[in-house]
Amino acid sequence: MRKRVFSGMRPTGRLHLGHLAGALSNWVRLQDDYDCFYCIVDWHAMMSEYAETGSIRSNCREVLLDWLGVGLDPDRSTIFLQSHVPQHAELHLALSMISPLGWLERNPTYKEQIINIQNKDLSTYAFLGYPVLQAADILLYKGDLVPVGEDQSAHLELSREIARRFNHLYRDIFPEPETLLTRTPKVPGTDGRKMSKSYGNAINIADTHDDIWGKLRTMMTDPARERRKDPGDPDKCPVWDIHKVFNLDPEERDHLWDGCKNAGIGCIDCKKALFGHLMDLLRPIQERRRAFESREDGILEVLRKGAKRAGTVAGETMSQVVDSMGFVDR
Question: What number of other Cβ atoms are within 10 A of residue 97's Cβ?
Fold first, then answer.
């Protein structure tokens, strides 16, 4: 049997080029070699958006359309909503019983977000315990591998610790999920910071032709290049960082590099070249996305099919969990 991969995304709205380069392109490739479970983790979205839930439903739809557009295939992968499989919440509760409070309080992401997110009250039981739900998501499907970037690999250790603790206390049910390190190229936003919806600097996968050009045209470049005749430094230019990810033509990249360093081309020329490569990449993705978007019944069928398969696997796992913990047989 093929090894099983589990990964998920929070539904925060349409996905952008950072998601495409950092995760989705890899997820599409993994379908060839692994039994893939891809989950839109809407319960996780509730942990920070519990007071403003009006957009969660539409955001789930947008994420699903982006996934289908980039090439995640419901015939080759299990694609589903977390809330459609109630065993996620049930296993979360079971694992909460055995997760030491100190493990959660030491979580670096929890500490960082409590400090940095000032406009929301995150002092809730659920937010402190979100790593337990994250562990439940993975362990429910006995995931062998979880694709993450190198900067996220430490987050998976808590899931392994919880699996070890459960196996020690009760019965050896859960494999310890391994990190499947993936290349996470730097994709800056239009203001030079990391591309993020919360920063308002993202180029979205579903953006129109005009929107993408409008964002690129005004995107910041090397701040030292104030005039067309000034030589530039591509290493200080966010536009060049996006070229390195999405422009796969080495000869053109060499030409653009030399043109920037010697003031042989202007920033608009460089941006036009990047725009062409982005549109070549996104055009078929957007066509597939529109095809699914036009068939609402098709979108619902993807979710029904995914939840049915995920629920079968999840149900088998939970039967083992409740039996090993000493509950009366169902």
Answer: 10
Answer whether 0.90 is exceeded by the pTM: yes
Name the band, by pLDDT with cuts 50, 70 and 90, for residue 183: confident
pLDDT in tens, 254-270: 999 999 999 999 999 99
19-25, Cβ contacts within 8 angstroms, sequence gap of 24 or more: 19/66, 19/205, 20/70, 20/205, 21/184, 21/185, 21/187, 21/245, 21/246, 22/149, 22/182, 22/184, 22/185, 22/187, 23/147, 23/182, 23/184, 24/66, 24/67, 24/70, 24/72, 25/70
225 Cβ partners below 8 Å, 6+ apart? 231, 232, 233, 237, 260, 267
pLDDT at site 254? 97
**Cα 127 from Cα 2, distance rounded (Å):** 34
Note whether 195 and 188 are within 8 A (CB).
yes
Helix (H) or strand (E) holding 115: helix 108-116
Residue whose C-alpha is closest to residue 154's, from 112, 125, 100, 95 = 112
State the DSSP string of 243-270. Answer: HHHH---HHHHHHHHHHHHTTSS-HHHH
Beta-carbon contacts of residue 273 (< 8 Å; ≥ 6 apart):
243, 247, 252, 256
Residue ranges and CATH numbers for the domains of the chain are 4-187+295-324 (3.40.50.620), 207-289 (1.10.240.10)
Query: What are the structure tokens assigned to 118, written together?
Result: 């000032």
Provide the residue type at 130 as one letter.
Answer: Y
pLDDT reported for residue 290: 96
